Amino acid sequence: MSYLVTATEKTKQKANEFETRSMLYLMNFHKESNKMHWYVIDFFNDVTAFDKFVTENWDLQSKGSKNLSATAIGKDLVTLYKNFLSNFDFVNFIIFMEGVLPQLRLNNTITEFKIDNINLEQLENLKSALEEEAKKKTYIENSLVSRESIDSFLERVVFVIETRTKQDYIKSMINLSSHLMPNDDYLSKIFNQIRDIQSAKKNIGTEGELLTSFSDFEKYSKYISMDDIKLLVFSRVLHKNDLGGMPYTFNCVLSSRPDIDAKVLVEKCQGDIYRLIFDRSNSKKYWEIFENFYNLIQENPEKSINDLYSIVDYDKLKQAHHLDILSAKYFLALIKEAFLNENSNCIYW
Amino acid sequence: MKILTVYIGNAKEVYIEKRLNCGVNVISSDDNNKGKTILIQGMMYALGNSPLFPSSFNYKDYYYITEIKNNNQNYRICRKNDNIFVLDYEKKLFIFDTVSDFKYYYNNTIHKLPKIIKDGKQKLVDLNLFYQIFFVGQDERTTSKIFKSGQYNKDDFINMIFSILLDDEIVINETEEEILNEINDLKEERKVLISSNKFLKSKSRAASFINYKNDKEKIDKKIMVADKIKDDIADLKKQRSTLISRKINTEILIKELRSLNRTIKDGKLVCLDCGSENIGFELADKSVVFDASDVDIRRDILKSLEEKISSMCDEINLTEIKLSSFQNQLKDYLDDKDVSLENIIFYKQEIAQSKDVDDRLKEIDKSIADLTAKLEVQKCSVSKRKNLNEEILEDIISDMNSFYKLIDPNGNLVFDNLFTSATEVFSGSEETEFYLSKIYALLKNLKHEFPIIIDSFREGELSTIKEKKILEKFSEFSNQIIFTATLKDEELGKYNFFEFINNIDYSINKDSKLLNEKNVPEFIAALHEFSIKI
User: Fold this and answer.
1) Per mean pLDDT, which range of A259-273, A294-308, B268-282, B356-370 is the poorest?
2) 8 Å CB contact of A274 and B289
3) What residues of chain B lie within 8 A of the CB of A276, using their CB?
4) Taking CB atoms and an 8 Å limit, are B290 and A197 in contact across chains?
5) Rounded to a whole number, what is the distance in angstroms from the first to the last CA of chain A?
6) From the CA of B47, how many Å to the nearest CA of chain A?
7) What is the pLDDT of residues B502-513, one digit of tens each?
8) How far apart are CA B56 and CA B61, in angstroms?
9) B170-195 burial code (b ≥16 CB/10 A, e <16)
10) CB contact under 8 A, A278 and B293
11) Can you give the pLDDT at residue B381?
């Protein structure tokens, strides 16, 4: 006697995963990824990216279906079109799709294109579908909907077809040589952690809120910053790769304490760091310290561990009571070594 | 083990040898100075051997990479001076600062190395001794010693062979020598007593003082030896307590980590909108709060800590075994050696009573009898082991002789040991035949899987007929074979007729210039995999 599990919300799960892919696409593979800083989730659209000072924006709609026809695409463009018609100045529009029917494109090898790569007949179907859908929706004023406005809207839309794996996105966030990169299985788990945070953001209710400018999004905490994701990936890979060997940059600390048995000292520092990362009720403290150390190391690449320790944020360090001066230096050395591996891939002799 | 590829070079010049196959390889050239020895020495140097490069080659300026296949797994090993890097089949990188560190990795991962007793302790043999089982270089050859002796001698080599075949742990025990010393001391005391008896009867006090002084010297010496054992015991105890405290600290750490990981069950903050427990206190600049670690990381850390505890337990056990053996030694030593103490006290009494001399003499005689019996038992077990050893040696030597007879039916040498005596050294073609026979006999008896590497295997002008027999005999085994030879003009191309031989021709190499700029980018890319940038 057995029971088959059916009628689960598996489409939702797929959609969530696809939305994470689209956010990571914006973070890493868009032409202007470097400018983007804030990624607002399920607010203006599925994902909307802003630069650090909220002067530029990229609005994205994601659709995780494989065989999209021109009519289906037309319908899905409606939220982007709504933003185009709105009072706020939306600049860039992107629709991110899993796959399209073969007859849609003129050149089937191009995966990022504007309407000039769409078959004219299909384009007509697309425009009609969009017009019909826009007229149906109550959140768009019917009087604003017209062929002319649709045409000028479509000039600005970039169509993107997904070509990458989950692991590609994570790998592109940090730059490590292949034998230091964790296996695909684990990279997929990191992806899932990002996906879970992104979909949790969607639970914050904001329907009906009135904004006076773009930067009002900040009040609702429905956003993720690029730094948080980069730190997450870096931290996960750092601790997964930590085989218990001592980072060689820690030598300068060891050599100043010849009285202590090196093995005992290193084990104590490792133990302190394990306590810090196992303490899930104090994760916030971990990230504060980690972010502080990471930024210091990035900004001062030539400084030694001892010099770096003299400029860390002691308040944050004190609050995480697991670390003392030696284990803090050890943690600095761990991050610095991973950082060296990321940015140079080699040990210099 | 099979050797697949060898790289030698630095940023300016490189040589890459990829043509070796897993069968019989003969590297030949029409002249000397074509680089064959550099290749062979470089290949073995990367694997941890001691270097013996030609003096015209500055070997310290170069990196050496050897790629091997061992038990169907590929390893790449890179060496520069004393730094060794290993890329294993999972592409994990290991770095070693000394050849000794590499030796332990080799023992754990690639092939178990034999142990011999050296300086009173049981130790793993060094790689440069182990490799002499199947590797014969070209220079500094001598049939009466092991090559590049250093800390080892030929007895160590022979003991290593026994250790491989008998595969048992040799426990340090009182040697025959020590028991004999004890017996001698007692006999001396006996003599002294008997003569002192005479003295006493003559009441010569001067003589008794002389005897007293003798014994005092003996006591001092015995105390020194006992002290050394006590120091060893103290060191081991310190080592053991450090290990125990590290083990306890690790156990405490694991308990703490497990408790930190548990979410507290009574009373929790819940979001009133969606019921989620994921409440993070968010400052204005923080948009997300992730856990500081995920399940995989925590699991890996706990697993590695538990493995550390097991390995520490093993080390503690080993230390305790050594400790109790030392303690037993000390106990026995003090028990038996109280003779001198007794002696002193006795002498003082003796001056008063001579009757005790007879009692003492009886005691001494009994002790001598007991010790002699112990010696017999000891001799028996030592001789049993000696017999096994002799059998092994006989088998190997007889295989050496039969191989020799096969390749040189008219030869009149007879081998009686793995090494010749210091005065009777072979040279020329006899020397070469000696090494070939020895390597063959070792291969046949040890049944090892290492490649047979002989640099200049026909030195002394071995004839073509002999060569053919040698190559055929060696290729009966499935081991990889790498031989080199310098051919005369008329011999060039001779190996083309033997299908089973992979002839690699070094004649086209420039004289004294094996490395060149051609393959430098490929070499730099290979070093890149080891995270080395030059």
Assistant:
1) B268-282
2) no
3) 292
4) yes
5) 66
6) 21
7) 888 888 888 778
8) 12
9) eeeebeeebbeebbebbeebbebbee
10) yes
11) 72
Which range has the worst mean pLDDT, B295-309, B324-338, B347-361, B435-449?
B347-361
Considering only CB atoms, which chain A residues are within 8 Å of B280?
A: 284
Burial of A282 (0-12, 13-18, 19+ CB in 10 A): middle
Gap from A119 CA to chain B (nearest CA, Å):
42
- For residue A33, what are its two tokens? 């990824």
Residue B161 CA to chain centroid, in angstroms?
12
Sign of CA pseudo-dihedral A272, A278, A279, A282: positive
And the tokens for B105? 């990795």
Task: Sort out which chain B residues have CB atoms less than 8 A from A223's CB and list them.
Answer: 287
Q: Which residues of A20-39 are buried (b: 16+ CB within 10 A; e: fewer)?
A: bbbbbbbbbebeeeeebbbb
Gyration radius of chain B over CA positions? 33
**Which residues in chain A land under pLDDT 50?**
345-349
**Coil, strand or helix at B389:** helix
**Packed helices A226-241 and A10-28: angle between N→C axes, nearest 10 degrees:** 100
Tell me which residue has tokens 């050294």: B425
What pLDDT, on the 0 to 100 scale, is given for residue B212?
61
Residue A252 to residues A121, A269, A293, Cα–Cα distance (Å): 70, 15, 18
Burial class (CB in 10 A: 0-12, 13-18, 19+), A310: exposed
Establish if B533 touches chain A: CB-CB under 8 angstroms: yes
* Mean pLDDT of the region B369-384: 77
- Asked if the Cβ–Cβ distance from B257 to A232 is below 8 Å, we say no
Distance (Å, whole) CA B90 – CA B73 = 9
Q: Which residue has the tokens 């080799």?
A: B106
Nearest Cα of chain B lies from the Cα of A279 at a distance, in angstroms, of 5
State whether residue B300 sits within 8 Å of chain A by CB. yes
CA angle A135, A139, A142 (to 5 degrees): 35
Of B263, B281, B528, the CB nearest to A284: B281
Q: Output the pTM of the full model.
A: 0.52
Q: Is A267's CB within 8 Å of B256's CB?
A: no
pLDDT at A348: 34
Between chains, do B533 and A346 touch, taking CB under 8 Å as contact? Answer: yes
